[in-house]
Amino acid sequence: MMKKIIFLCFFIGSIGFFSTTIKAQSNDSARLQFSILTCEAGEDIYTVWGHTAIRVIDSTHQTDYVFNYGTFDFDEPFFITKFVKGSLKYFISVNNFSDFYNLYQAEKRNIKEQVINLSITEKAKWYEALKVNLVDSNRYYLYNFITDNCTTRVKDGLFKNTHYQPNPTTTLSFREKVVAAPYQKGIPWIGLGIDLLLGAYSDQKPLEMHAGFLPDLLFDQLAQVKKLVKSTHVYQFTTASENANTNTKSKVPFFTLLGFLAFYLILTIVKNRFTIIASKIVDIALLLTFTIGGSLMFYMCHISLHTACYQNFNLMWMHPLYLIALITYFIKNQWIESIAKVFLGAIIGLLLACFWLPQHFSQEIFLLIAIALILNYRLILKGQNNIATK
User: Fold this and answer.
1) Between the N and C ends of the chain, which has fewer C-beta atoms within 10 Å?
2) Mapping DSSP to helix (H, G, I), strand (E, B) and coil, where does residue 85 land?
3) Roughly what angle, to the nearest 10 degrees, separates helices 363-388 and 188-197?
4) Paired residues of 115 in beta bridges
5) Starting at the edge strand that comes first in sequence, how are the strands of the sheet with 51-58 ordered?
6) What pLDDT score does 256 carry?
7) What SS3 state is found at 33?
8) Is the Cβ–Cβ distance between 386 and 336 less than 8 Å?
9) Rounded to an integer, what distance in angstroms lies between the CA atom of residue 146 and that of residue 123?
10) How far apart are CA 66 and CA 96, in angstroms?
11) Which of 180, 178, 370, 367 is CA-nearest to residue 256?
């Protein structure tokens, strides 16, 4: 009889314990809600790729916070120098959602919110990881275009602290998505400049874990993961007509460069007083442009910490050595011919090998290469004329 009483007490106690546990779990599930916020591109150059943040609602403590990994300090000493080198420190910050919402509403940048379906353990694990990130030096990280940014930090946090895994990706390369955004935002020359600076490293096909490296890419990736997204809500601050031209790639650089190439050819072929003077002005302007552009490209490829710019084969036709050609342009001897032949040989070698190289060259870059060919051909002719007139 005593054993039955003890068993009955244990059974009743067990029911009470499990009931309390289930209730606690239920309360915890209601207490925390995680969302991924995907923000539309803005007008400033550093916002053209959009933004990603994490929203955490704690209904018990009546808090609604946004964790933002895209924070940096404009007042940082040598800000531009550090950004170009890749040594500028970004950091995580926390804002009230109302402040975050008001900022994007004022900038007319729509926000897409994906409420994430997480277990109690996963919520606790990720929330603890976020709090650890906020402590002292843990807040800071070195920004990288494609491997470590405000979006990849969110993506990595999600997949590392939950059981979910990303789906296979259709993205062909990092370059494809990085370059497209400025074109679509109406600043195509910035897009072309970025295309020039990105090296073969950016032409790799992202693995599943790395594919969501930009805000819209992560949004699409999360939407495809089964049972991950509970619901999606859009905070709309613009009309359909205001977004009508955001998905088209501008052809302005292509037709401008094509027109310049045709003009340069005419200056080379037609011989009169005007074309001779104009062609010399264009020669000097191009030598100066290729020297400055090539110096920046060399720095980004070999000195900076931006891995996206590594292995850049554009250095075969645009490089700092044009400074030598620029100096010898004003000296009446045959040196410029020898220099131009070396440069021309490098360009021809690049063109012969470009289809086997691990780097993509756009139509606009091929037009720039054609302009470089004409420039070096003209430098060879100049050197020959210098000898003939001695």
Assistant:
1) N
2) helix
3) 70
4) 35, 231
5) 140-142, 89-96, 63-71, 51-58, 32-39, 111-116, 229-235
6) 97
7) strand
8) yes
9) 27
10) 6
11) 367
Q: Enter the DSSP assignment of 183.
A: H
Q: Encode pLDDT of 210-265 as tens digits.
A: 889 999 999 999 999 999 999 999 999 887 655 555 556 789 999 999 999 999 99
Where does the pLDDT of residue 185 fall: very low under 50, low under 70, confident under 90, or very high at 90 and above?
Answer: confident
Largest CA distance in the chain: 125
Give the whole-angstrom CA distance, residue 222 versus residue 157: 13
Read off the pTM: 0.85
**Backbone Cα Rg of the chain:** 29
Provide the token pair at 40.
């539309």
Axis-axis angle for helices 363-388, 335-353 (nearest 10): 150
**CA 30 from centroid of its chain's CA atoms:** 36
301, 313 in Cβ contact below 8 A? no
Residue with the two structure tokens 């606790």: 124
Q: Is 28:121 a contact under the CB 8 Å cutoff?
A: no
Report the DSSP pairing between strands 63-71 and 229-235: unpaired
Domains of the chain: 32-171+206-243 (3.90.1720), 252-388 (no CATH)
Compute the C-alpha angle 306/307/312, nearest 5°: 100
User: If pLDDT is split at 50, 70 and 90, which confidence band does 145 have?
Assistant: confident
Under 8 Å between Cβ of 59 and 43 = no
Angle at 44 between CA 35 and CA 204, to 5 degrees: 70
Q: What tokens does 279 get?
A: 């062609």
Mean pLDDT value across residues 69-97: 84
Amino acid at 310: Y
